[in-house]
User: Which sequence fits this backbone?
């Protein structure tokens, strides 16, 4: 990989800690890369995403089975000096963007991302530094197909980017929250749950999720060659088959032991073979004219594959120790309202401290009540003294 001249590399100690350039097989043991270690910082122009103070951070994270892998993400800093104790941090998890390198929702797009850039601007305006991961395989590193909706790697990519940013920017505080919509809503909930065991040293304040992709595993595990037609999804400019194919390829590429190919037709395997390096619009074009049933030779109903799918993508519905704020559109055409209602019911049964602000908009559309609730949440995070 050629390194652009504008890169400003971090101190050599960080690179050594990441296991770069150490002795070969006949010398001393090579140190394993440490998750959460930054390997490069790339300052960006002040018009990046319409915001000043942006940088790309390359860092180490892990795959679902714990192997070290490189990833990229963004950091945005508010203007002016940091307050006493440092800038509180908002982790932003983006929505579905594809499966291939340079399909990341943050680092590989300059501007013009509409609502996403509005979210970033709102968080900075409220006095938060923002970290935003690309997720595995979507950004600057070709690490294979993105494991779409794999909850653990979305969460570890988020937490490890937060650690990388804090290790290189002492003006960032321990206090943080996480926010995301659609795939990012699912990722944000997974991050909120996982941080309890992987980042107890930090001061986590809660999660905001907009129309999260939750309980999707319950739909995926009933698919097969005998299901009826599923309508197109306008927001992906094509069939629901595109999202189904992305889920299947994510599972197939990251969990080959599951034997997913055994459930697919030859044409279904060919479709999955062809989408691992594509972005969302290209995947929609590749699956145009196909129904999900066209991918399957047999149903996904047996216990073996269903357990893998559930472990891969299911959102936890118990044991959140900080507040959960959900923005749910009952007219959402992408994540149907019965799934939103099921999530709320499961969180209630799990005795989770959560609040729902409903809407009647499109997928991840915000209404005035949602914006007001978000601002109140951020104000509480920013003004409440840090815990020990």
Assistant:
């Amino acid at each position: 990989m050629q390194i652009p001249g504008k890169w400003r590399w971090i101190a050599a100690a960080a690179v050594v800690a990441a296991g770069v350039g150490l002795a070969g097989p006949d010398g001393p043991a090579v140190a394993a890369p440490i998750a959460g270690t930054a390997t490069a910082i790339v300052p960006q122009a002040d018009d990046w995403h319409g915001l000043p103070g942006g940088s790309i951070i390359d860092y180490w994270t892990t795959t679902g089975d714990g192997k070290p892998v490189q990833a990229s993400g963004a950091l945005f800093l508010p203007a002016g000096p940091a307050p006493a104790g440092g800038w509180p941090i908002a982790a932003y998890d983006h929505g579905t963007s594809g499966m291939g390198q340079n399909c990341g929702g943050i680092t590989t797009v300059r501007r013009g991302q509409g609502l996403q850039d509005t979210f970033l601007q709102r968080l900075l305006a409220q006095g938060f530094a923002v970290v935003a991961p690309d997720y595995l395989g979507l950004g600057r590193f070709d690490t294979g197909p993105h494991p779409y909706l794999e909850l653990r790697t979305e969460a570890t990519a988020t937490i490890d980017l937060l650690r990388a940013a804090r290790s290189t920017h002492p003006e960032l505080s321990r206090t943080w929250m996480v926010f995301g919509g659609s795939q990012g809503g699912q990722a944000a909930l997974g991050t909120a749950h996982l941080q309890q065991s992987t980042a107890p040293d930090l001061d986590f304040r809660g999660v905001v999720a907009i129309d999260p992709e939750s309980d999707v595993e319950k739909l995926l595990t009933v698919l097969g060659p005998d299901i009826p037609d599923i309508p197109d999804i306008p927001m992906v400019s094509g069939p629901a088959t595109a999202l189904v194919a992305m889920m299947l390829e994510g599972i197939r590429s990251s969990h080959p032991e599951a034997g997913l190919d055994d459930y697919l037709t030859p044409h279904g395997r060919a479709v999955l073979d062809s989408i691992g390096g594509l972005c969302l619009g290209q995947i929609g074009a590749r699956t145009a004219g196909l129904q999900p049933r066209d991918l399957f030779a047999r149903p996904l109903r047996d216990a073996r594959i269903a357990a893998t799918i559930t472990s891969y993508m299911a959102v936890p519905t118990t044991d959140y120790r900080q507040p959960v704020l959900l923005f749910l559109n009952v007219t959402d055409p992408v994540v149907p309202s019965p799934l939103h209602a099921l999530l709320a019911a499961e969180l209630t049964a799990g005795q989770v401290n959560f609040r729902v602000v409903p809407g009647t908009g499109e997928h991840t559309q915000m209404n005035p009540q949602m914006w007001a609730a978000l601002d109140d949440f951020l104000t509480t995070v920013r003004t409440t003294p840090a815990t020990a």
Notes: The first helix runs from residue 12 to 17.
